[in-house]
Amino acid sequence: MSGAVDLSPLKERASAPPPPPPSGGDGAAPGAIAPIVDVTEATFETEVLQRSMQVPVIVDLWATWCEPCKQLSPVLEKLANEADGAWVLAKVDVDANPRIAQAFGVQSVPTVVAIAAGQPLADFQGVQPEPALRQWLDAIRNAVAGKLSGPPGAEPEEQPADPRFEAAEQALENGDFEGAEAAYQLVLNSEPNNTEAQAALRQVRFLARASKIPEDAIERADAAPNDLEAQFTAADAELFAQQPEAAFGRLIEFVRRSAGDERTAARTRLLELFELFDAADPVVVSSRRKLAMALY
Questions:
Q1: What percentage of the chain has pLDDT greater than the value 70?
Q2: Is 66 known to be catalytic?
Q3: Both ends of the chain: CA-CA distance in Å?
Q4: Residues forming beta bridges with residue 58, ordered by sequence position
């Protein structure tokens, strides 16, 4: 499934009678969001489209006869319960609700689609391992962070500023990349799994390299296709110029035609560049696929 999804027929089906506000589920406190809901054509607008204005809705399109669905659905349900309302799992039986399946262009089950602000963001088909599902869900949540209204009655929590991050940001504003890197590294020394510090450190290291890129970096690299360092610098230049596809393609091509330590180094740098972007970014997804083909 790819491209735009026409959900208007389902809106029309659900418009008579007018839908009530999205329910909190059986036993849920007023205003609370049930982590898992069964969705029909009649409740699609309420439980999926309207709800997705508040939090991401992950639509699990399944069928009773589908064995892979029986493997995937319990994992999604477990993760939805763990999320505690940060996103909602909407389960759709495609045989009982063919118009929903048709609207999403479902060709096989299980198919899983992420919806936010009434629009599909990403999808996949087939069974996925739990770590991959967690990464995919994290990417969805990061993509919509600050763009949805949140659960009913939710008050945004104002987090106190972390002085360690303030020091790093101040160093960055002063053009002191080494100071900013040291500050973020200090956070990671005590909190190795701090994802905010990890992402910031990757950005700082890239900006530090980008500040030293010569104007003719791309021309030099094109003239010396076997010079790994020249390819690294040119890829940074293309990335800094907001041409990620060109940057990724350059390093993928080097991986394709090289071997040994240089091939490993090029692959490692490419993976580092991928991490500067959302994991669900189409250019990253496509480039990961091309890298896999170049390697094997």
A1: 86
A2: yes
A3: 26
A4: 89, 114
Q: Which pair of tokens denotes residue 156?
A: 């945004």
Model pLDDT for residues 99-135, shown as the tens digit of each residue = 999 888 899 999 999 999 888 888 999 999 999 999 9
Q: How far apart are CA 292 and CA 296, in angstroms?
A: 6
| Mean local confidence (pLDDT), 256-278 | 92
The helix-helix angle for 260-274 and 282-295 (nearest 10°) equals 170
Indicate if 76 belongs to the active site.
no
Main-chain dihedrals φ then ψ at residue 131, nearest 5 degrees: -60, -40
Q: How many residues does the chain have?
A: 296
Q: Which pair of tokens denotes residue 200?
A: 């910031």
Question: How far, in Å, CA of 40 to CA of 96, rounded?
Answer: 8
Determine which one of 34, 59, 69, 218 is catalytic.
Answer: 69
Q: Is 61 helix (H, G, I), strand (E, B) or coil?
A: strand
**pLDDT tens-place string over residues 158-177:** 556 678 888 888 888 888 99
Q: Could you say which of 5, 42, 66, 127 is catalytic?
A: 66
Strand, coil or helix: 295:
helix
Domain with CATH 3.40.30.10 in the chain: 8-144
Distance CA 102, CA 51 (A): 21
Q: What angle do CA 282, 287, 292 make, to 5 degrees?
A: 135
Cβ pair 5, 100 in contact under 8 A? no
CATH of domain 8-144: 3.40.30.10
Q: What is the CA radius of gyration of the chain?
A: 23
Structure tokens at 5: 């999804």
Q: 0.85 cut: is pTM over it?
A: no
